[in-house]
């Protein structure tokens, strides 16, 4: 079997930063460490941290007063920050800087009196946190149809931002609908969709035509990973989202001679390596790496982690 290995794949700069933030807090603080929501949307990453004393919580009220809390890469609302301060929590913010950029755009547009259309999945952690910046000024739209139904006070005072992990093609359809309905719409100069999300989707678009099957390493609750499967299916290929090599069904390869392997931005590289080993062992896989672009983006640890004292009270 021919195995096309997509590059870039796997961890992006924001995920690397978030994971290293929790590692640093564990090193300095020791367990237990409380993290608000999953630090990144990957089952294996979460399970590893749980085994090392990290406790993931869905509510700030689950964190003991005066304890330390890490905010996930997806960002949080001002309401959550306020709740943390009331509980006198030590806050370490691992929000991806690209998500923070969208938050700041929302704050600016709301201050200027715009109604903001947030293009994204309304129940995703990133969407919940971003909408919380200006809940009275934001309307979440998931499709072009929802754009048509949106009711805004002033059609000439509309802006839009996007979730960072969207399908580029899906987002563009919604953006086109917004621009058509609101010709004077404001929007960021630089695209909100994450560079890593775009690169991984473009790689699948380019190389899926050369494969019979596309395998994406990533968890079911990972938005950017699911978009990779959708991109494969848009190319007319069978695409499967798997957490690890154990979920591979040999029946997927009946009559197939080639497979494209990639990974979502929150999937660790060792899971890709394990998958490659299984494909070599059981299907005679011969790996060919194809590189779309070399990524050199990195984010330093947040100041709240770098300056954390080694003797924080637990």
Give a nutshell description of this structure.
It contains 11 helices and 12 strands.
Report on this model:
This protein folds into three domains: 107 residues, 4-hydroxy-3-methylbut-2-enyl diphosphate reductase, catalytic domain (Cobalt-precorrin-4 Transmethylase, domain 1), CATH 3.40.1010.20; 92 residues, Rossmann fold (3-Layer(aba) Sandwich), CATH 3.40.50; 84 residues, Cobalt-precorrin-4 Transmethylase, domain 1 (3-Layer(aba) Sandwich). The chain is built from eleven helices and twelve strands. The strands form three sheets. The chain has a five-stranded parallel sheet, sandwiched between helices. Strand 9, helix 9 and strand 10 form a beta-alpha-beta unit. The longest helix has 17 residues.
Summarize the SSE layout with pairings.
Elements: E1 2-7, H1 13-29, E2 33-36, H2 43-51, E3 54-57, E4 68-71, H3 78-86, E5 90-93, H4 97-111, E6 115-119, H5 125-131, E7 138-141, H6 144-149, E8 158-162, H7 168-181, H8 195-207, E9 213-217, H9 223-234, E10 238-242, E11 258-263, H10 269-283, E12 286-291, H11 303-306
Parallel strand pairs: 1-11, 1-12, 2-3, 2-4, 4-5, 6-7, 6-8, 9-10, 9-11
Order of helices and strands: EHEHEEHEHEHEHEHHEHEEHEH
Rg from Cα: 21 Å
SS class: alpha/beta
Q: From the coordinates shown, what is the CATH architecture of the largest domain? A: 3-Layer(aba) Sandwich
How many distinct beta strands? 12
Low-confidence segments: none
Q: What is the CATH superfamily of the largest domain?
A: 4-hydroxy-3-methylbut-2-enyl diphosphate reductase, catalytic domain
Q: According to CATH, what is the topology of the largest domain?
A: Cobalt-precorrin-4 Transmethylase, domain 1
Please, how many helices?
Answer: 11
**Total number of distinct structural domains:** 3
Order of strands in the sheet with most strands: 10-9-11-1-12
Fraction of residues in H or I helices: 25-40%
Shape: flat
Q: What would the average pLDDT be, to the nearest integer? A: 96
CATH class of the largest domain: Alpha Beta
């Amino acid at each position: 079997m021919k195995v096309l290995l997509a590059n870039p794949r796997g961890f992006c700069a924001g995920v690397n930063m978030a994971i290293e933030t929790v590692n640093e807090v564990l090193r300095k603080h020791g367990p237990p460490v409380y993290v608000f929501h999953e630090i990144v949307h990957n089952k294996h990453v979460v399970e590893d941290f749980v085994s090392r004393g990290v406790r993931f919580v869905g509510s700030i009220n689950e964190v003991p007063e005066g304890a330390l809390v890490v905010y996930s890469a997806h960002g949080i609302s001002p309401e959550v920050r306020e709740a943390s301060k009331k509980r006198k929590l030590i806050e370490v913010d691992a929000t991806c800087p690209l998500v923070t950029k969208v938050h700041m755009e929302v704050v600016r547009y709301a201050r200027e009196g715009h109604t903001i259309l947030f293009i994204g999945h309304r129940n995703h952690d990133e969407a919940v946190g971003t909408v919380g910046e200006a809940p009275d000024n934001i309307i979440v739209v998931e499709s072009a149809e929802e754009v048509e139904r949106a009711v805004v006070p002033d059609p000439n005072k509309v802006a839009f931002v996007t979730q960072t992990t969207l399908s580029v093609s899906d987002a563009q359809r919604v953006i086109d609908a917004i621009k058509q309905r609101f010709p004077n719409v404001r929007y960021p100069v630089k695209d909100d969709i994450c560079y890593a999300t775009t690169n991984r989707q473009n790689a699948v678009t380019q190389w899926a035509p050369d494969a019979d099957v596309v395998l994406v390493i990533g968890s079911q609750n990972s938005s950017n990973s699911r978009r990779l499967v959708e991109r494969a299916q848009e190319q007319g290929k069978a695409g499967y989202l798997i957490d690890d090599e154990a979920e591979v069904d040999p029946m997927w390869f009946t009559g197939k001679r080639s497979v494209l392997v990639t990974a979502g931005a929150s999937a660790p590289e060792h899971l890709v390596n394990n998958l490659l080993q299984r494909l070599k062992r059981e299907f005679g896989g011969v790996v060919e790496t194809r590189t779309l672009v070399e990524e050199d983006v990195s984010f330093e640890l947040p100041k709240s982690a770098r300056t954390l004292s080694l003797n924080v009270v637990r």
